[in-house]
Amino acid sequence: MEDAAAPVSAQEQVASPRRAPSQQRSRERVERMLAAASALIAEQGSDAMRMGEVAERAGVSIGSLYQFFPDKRAIIWALAERYTAESQACISAALAGVSDAEGLGLAFSELVDIYYGLFLAEPVIRDIWSGTQADKALRQLELADSRANAEFLTAVLKRLRPDADPAALDATAFLVWQMGEAAMRLAISVERQEGDRLVAAYKRMALRELLAE
Amino acid sequence: MEDAAAPVSAQEQVASPRRAPSQQRSRERVERMLAAASALIAEQGSDAMRMGEVAERAGVSIGSLYQFFPDKRAIIWALAERYTAESQACISAALAGVSDAEGLGLAFSELVDIYYGLFLAEPVIRDIWSGTQADKALRQLELADSRANAEFLTAVLKRLRPDADPAALDATAFLVWQMGEAAMRLAISVERQEGDRLVAAYKRMALRELLAE
DNA sequence: AAAAAATATGAGTAATACTCACATTTGCAA
DNA sequence: TTGCAAATGTGAGTATTACTCATATTTTTT
User: Fold this and answer.
1) Strand D nucleotides with an atom less than 7 Å from a protein beta carbon
2) pLDDT in tens, A50-71
3) pTM summary value
4) Which DSSP category does B165 fall into?
5) Among A134, A111, A106, A135, which Cα is nearest to A184's?
């Protein structure tokens, strides 16, 4: 009997459940809480984000915050889920129509650029995904997300190389994708120029692998 | 006037300095603290490691712990530094004599296997390097370490391809190395069989890049 | 209008990293 | 040996912060 699309859905996988907002008023307040958290993360990073500060900036009491988010991770998680959904749509669109090697090369190359741009531009993404490793549960979300994204790649590969071992194609796509995320994280934590070079090197490497054989 | 080789050297880069142990007695106690921390991390992970528990298990007071380690990160850091030094020696030895493409292929392949084995076997390494991202300062140490390791690769590449652009070779080596670490982290957080496949895929991908052209 | 459900509140609790004033031990020169 | 300074050891106490809960208010339902 629970609304699966509620903004708290992700939390239920980990922490004790909280009521999903059902009234207009509370839905708006939850939005304010997320906006406040997002701003604070952008300013100081998720580690330094204080729950009391989130509540204050959202103009709600600390109790209200915990009414909808069972713990601190849940807020970060909820934000992560939004970006996740967004980027997944983008990937799906970019790779859907690919039917030959040349098309894959173009689409993949463009996809990397878009992703890199996202990483560079959005401080919240940077912070969340670079702090991810510390939080086992969030890491699982990231892995699941990465797997889902990689599947778009796998689908293309299977179309291009129908005779190859499917498990090997899975591994290749998953690895290429994960290494892409690793490369981005690396790139944004060094000087811009070096970062660009690293992303370019990754792109070359990944394409060589994807288009091989 | 300070002993640079003291086990607290790493801390000085970040937190307020602490006295380095100069007497036999305190050196032994510091060892016990590190051993206790290592055991606790192996058992529960560094996040769940409590400073009070470290002190208790080492048989010292909480005050003594803080006499030599300015904060919790410093203990983890000190442990990380040890493994870092160890693995660096191993890499240097493996790559030092390489002078042709075939030799690079063999040495690199073996190196990956050794590293993967280390990751699999040593819970403290797993925990520290997978939690790394959360701690900005530790991440810097990891990057510096990675750069140093990559330089052994760069040296080999420059020998093999003297006419290539040095900056590009740097980027390639750095990226290949970082992606290797990312691949290992990924591999140990999934089922063993899939992990093995991922490492194999990485090896193939990296070798193709290293031996290209 | 009354009852029930949802939402709002913030003082209070609990957990834990870290401090500090003081006690003890060690190294060393007189 | 003795005296003294530096190094080391101690643990009760402080500070911070995530999180709870009894209670009050608002909205929805009957």
Assistant:
1) 7-13, 17-22, 26-28
2) 999 999 999 999 999 999 999 9
3) 0.81
4) -
5) A111
β strands within B52-144, DSSP E: none
Is nucleic acid strand C under 7 Å from A50's C-beta?
no
Which H/E stretch holds residue B59?
Answer: none
Q: Are A109 and A207 in contact (CB under 8 A)?
A: yes
Whether chain A has a CB inside 8 Å of the CB on B143: the answer is yes
Percent of chain A beyond pLDDT 70?
Answer: 88
The total of other beta-carbon atoms located within 10 Å of residue A52's CB is 10
* Strand C positions within 7 A of protein Cβ atoms: 6-12, 16-21, 25-27
Lowest mean pLDDT among A56-60, B8-12, B42-46: B8-12
- To the nearest whole Å, the CA of A84 is away from the closest chain B CA by 19
Residue A39 touches chain B, beta carbons under 8 Å: no
Q: Which two tokens stand for residue B15?
A: 């937190």
- Point out the residue among B182, B189, B204 whose CB comes nearest to the CB of A179: B182
> What digits encode the pLDDT tens for the residues B156-178?
999 999 999 998 899 999 999 99
Say yes or no: Cβ of A59 under 7 A from any atom of strand D. no
pLDDT recorded at residue B6: 36
Interatomic CA–C1' length for residue A71 and nucleotide C16, angstroms: 17
Q: How many CA atoms lie within 13 A of B212 on its CB side?
A: 18
Residue B54 to chain A, least CA–CA distance (Å) = 20
**Is the shortest CB-to-strand distance from A29 to strand C under 7 Å?**
yes
